[in-house]
Amino acid sequence: MLRGLERRLIVNFLEISVFFSIFVSKINSLINLYSNMKKTILTLFAATALMLSSCMTPGLGTTSTTNSSNDVLGTVLGSVLSNVLFGGSLFDQSSILGSWNYTAPSSAFTTEKTLTRAGGNATVTNMNSSLASNYNSIGINRSNTSFSFLAGNKFSAKVNGIPFSGTYVYNSQNGEISLKTSTETIKGNVIKTQKGMGLMFDSTQMVNLLQKEGKVSNTAAVQAVSKLAKSADGARVGFELTK
Fold first, then answer.
1. Of the candidates 34, 46, 77, 230, which lies 20 to 30 Å from 166 by C-alpha distance?
2. Can you say whether the dihedral through the CA atoms of 163, 145, 100, 168 is positive or negative?
3. DSSP for 187-204?
4. What pLDDT, on the 0 to 100 scale, is given for residue 237?
């Protein structure tokens, strides 16, 4: 009789263990689902905010065309794919070749962890908005800022209309790039964006690029850009380029 009771207790224990395992698995699934939904909601919130901001711009009225709304939404959601440098979509050695012209500011974080700590994709949207203002103050635009990567690891570039050239080394495994000029080596990161290429740098490298190579005299704007790059751990700032 005792043996029968022992067997029954063992069976009950095993049944409880199985139930508990299933319960824990369901809880973990719900946690993961919540986390993914949270990221999606934050992304859509940032996109909606930017769309509303565009629609309410003075002089444009309170409405916009369907195409312009889609462009704004595409820009925000497209940039989500490139907000993390390490683990993002990279170019191979041949795809980087060609002439790339500045089209917009670009910013990102080194890892998903640093991006999350900084506040997520909404933070990147705010950084790009601040960069745009400072780039306008400096005078950076499509006609005076570009990078050309040539066969034989040579490059030529213009920043704020000032030309410079040299050699480059690109690592297609992690997106790191080094631009060696006659006076210095500037290290940055390259990643694919929705429209083309993101070329980004940390605070020190970006200041060198703007002041030493681009001869930018607007110190206040340069320091503001530098401050953005130092605003959070793992932050990088730079340019979105298209062919």
1. 230
2. positive
3. EEEEEE-SSSEEEEE-HH
4. 95
List, for residues 16-33, the tens digit of each pLDDT value: 655 555 555 555 555 544
Residue 202 tokens read as 């940390």
Q: What angle do CA 31, 33, 36 make, to 5 degrees?
A: 110
Determine how many CB atoms are found less than 10 A away from the CB of residue 200. 28
Nearest to 107 by CA among 95, 91, 96, 118: 118
In this structure, what DSSP letter does residue 86 have? T
The domain segmentation of the chain, as residue ranges, is 1-80, 104-242
Q: Convert the pLDDT of each residue in 75-126 to its tens digit.
A: 333 343 456 665 567 899 999 999 999 999 999 888 778 777 777 778 888 8
Task: Give the residue among 172, 188, 176, 191 at the shortest CA–CA distance from 229.
Answer: 188
Q: What is the mean pLDDT of residues 174-186?
A: 95
Q: How far apart are the first and last CA of the chain?
A: 84
10-14 contacts at long range (C-beta below 8 A, 24 or more positions apart): none
CB burial readout 87-121, b (16+ within 10 A) else e = ebebbeeeebeeebbbbbbbbbbbebebbeebebb
Which residues 6+ apart lie within 8 Å of 198 measured at CB? 82, 106, 108, 189, 190, 191, 192, 238, 239, 240, 241
